[in-house]
Amino acid sequence: MASDATPTAIEWYPAKLLQSRETAPAFALVVLNQPLRNGANLRRLWRNSSIRVAADGGANRLKDLSSFEGKFSNLQVIIGDLDSLNPSVRDFYTSQPTPAQIIHDSSQYSTDFGKAIKHVRDKYPTGIDIVALGGIGGRVDQGLSQLHHLYLFQQDRTYGDGRIFLLSGSSLTFLLKAGSHRIQVREDGEEAVFGKHVGIIPLKGSRAGSRPRGSSGT
């Protein structure tokens, strides 16, 4: 006999990534080789993250914003095939009080983004979330590749290996697997860090439905 029980919804609280450090969950920050802005989101993510990794040329982007003494200098890892990493940037991050680890991975079967995700998954606690800074931006093929990585590295239906978020200048993108989800943009009394627009785009399967409350669905 089929059960009539309503499936438990998977809860999402993405705003906590950008709120106070006390309420933010543990997560790793991966900086991609995309243009960065020294804005509030970057400063908050840098402050709240417990692990900071640059995917190859992402370190160059970060260094461009590190002209202020000490800002964004405590990078822990630079990983990739390193064909984009500037020698001066490498010297900068390896000469810090806590030097960044440089990992050369020459594999042509994985992107620098994929190498960064795999490093975090292999090295750090199981289930830690990852925020990729750069998100859906740049060339179309790069954007599609980043969406592919959401599928590739989130095989578990309940996100047991951790969730992955793609943050760009104007949006936060994440993968909703088949099933029921509840996305809490903010709670009463909390600082608003996102606008009121939510977009749901079906990329696999026949249909997707939503019932937005207190937001504009698109």
UniProtKB/TrEMBL annotation:
Instruction: Give the pathway listed in the UniProt entry for this protein.
Output: Cofactor biosynthesis; thiamine diphosphate biosynthesis; thiamine diphosphate from thiamine: step 1/1
Instruction: Please give the coiled-coil regions recorded for this protein.
Output: none
Record-given protein name = Thiamin pyrophosphokinase catalytic domain-containing protein
The regions listed as transmembrane in this protein's record are: none
Q: Does the keyword Membrane apply?
A: no
Native species of this protein? Bionectria ochroleuca (Gliocladium roseum)
- Gene Ontology biological process terms from the UniProt entry: thiamine diphosphate biosynthetic process; thiamine metabolic process
Per the record, the similarity remark reads:
Belongs to the thiamine pyrophosphokinase family.
PANTHER family given in the database record:
THIAMIN PYROPHOSPHOKINASE (PTHR13622), THIAMIN PYROPHOSPHOKINASE 1 (PTHR13622:SF8)
